[in-house]
Amino acid sequence: METGKPLRLGVIGCGFFAQNHLSAWKEIEGVDLVAVCDVDPPKAQRAASSFAVPRLYTDAQDMFSKEHLDFVDIVTLPPSHRPLVQLAANNGVGVICQKPIAWTLEDAQAMVEACRRAQVPFMVHENFRWQTPMRELKRVIDSGAIGRPFFGRISWRTGHDLFAAQPWLRETPRFIVIEVAIHLLDLARFLFGDPQTVFCHTVRVNPSICGEDVATIVLTMDGSTCVVDCSSATHNEPENFPQTLVTIEGSQGTAYLGADYQLQIMHSGSLKVQTVAIPAHAWAIAPWHVVQDSVFNIQRHWVECMQHGRTPETSGEDNLRVLELVLGAYESAENNMVVRLV
Ligand SMILES: NC(=O)c1ccc[n+]([C@@H]2O[C@H](COP(=O)([O-])OP(=O)(O)OC[C@H]3O[C@@H](n4cnc5c(N)ncnc54)[C@H](O)[C@@H]3O)[C@@H](O)[C@H]2O)c1
User: Fold this and answer.
1) What is the 148 CA–ligand 1 centroid distance (Å)?
2) How many angstroms is it from 168 CA to the middle of ligand 1?
3) What is the pLDDT of residues 210-222, one digit of tens each?
4) Which of 176, 126, 166 is nearest to 16 (CA)?
5) Of ligand 1's atoms, which has the minimum distance to the CA of residue 43?
6) What is the C-alpha to C-alpha distance for residues 120 and 62, in angstroms, rounded to an integer?
7) What is d(CA 295, CA 19) in angstroms, rounded to the nearest whole number?
8) Are the CB atoms for 301 and 130 separated by under 8 Å?
9) How far is the CA of 55 from the centre of ligand 1 (A)?
10) What are the residues facing 332 on neighbouring strands?
């Protein structure tokens, strides 16, 4: 790759969440969004005109044949992730893929292997750890202010109608763990390290969906325990959607990220309270702004990694651990047992 030249990018999948990716790409320096692709022609057309993208495609192979791309950003549904990532690898193009990387470990491993063999960089768009309050929490832990963490709770509970914008979530056989708690499981790894065991209990409250919509998960790490709880069936007042609340208890103090990004740090008998400011983006809209900012942050991280030949934090290989955790949680829920992770 020639240095100093903008990286040429194509986005594959121009549906609901891709709007955030597209907005962020237009804001990030060093990239040139040259093409969009969606099998649904009006969606490709709408994305091209809204984001001033010069060329549009309805077939990914056609886009790879006609464009000279440095990387693609895949924002389609999980079953299409493997063939599209393999197509990118076969075309020698770097690839970002939305979470979940895949529904099976076999598919995910094949994707990682295809990119390794083609020597193209591969990142999973696992954005929650890139939320500004989560970076701040990590900074607090790493500063030693609360000592050695021994307990965590990572909580995401809402009554917000997720199905209005993403009707496909009603039909998906597995829902809250693989679609939403997946982010919290990666956050647990980010804040506490890789778990050794997982126990999960799931419930389906909403009778009109196929999958589970409530999950309570207990993770054990070396010297710490973390509870991950996630629900889209919760009656909340006030409604905190789409906020994640986090408690971290350490040997010297406690950090608590509460509603509206209020961060309390208690250590050495003193309490410090601050509101974490979410960086503003012209296209971001509350209450989604914390997520939209994280999309910007992870995509900028990818560009920096490509420019400097670094491995992204949430590389495909790293993300295999997240999928193992998700699948371990389902195995635990189905068999009512603790699952040991390798
Ligand atoms: N990180 C987050 O916070 C977050 C939030 C929402 C969704 N997501 C993820 O984003 C992905 C997309 O979800 P969504 O709700 O935006 O879905 P969506 O159905 O709204 O959009 C998917 C788009 O991909 C297109 N598509 C499907 N197959 C294609 C192919 N082979 N080539 C080109 N286009 C193709 C569809 O026509 C559709 O427009 C999922 O993996 C989902 O889990 C992540």
Assistant:
1) 39
2) 10
3) 999 999 999 999 9
4) 166
5) 39
6) 20
7) 11
8) yes
9) 20
10) none
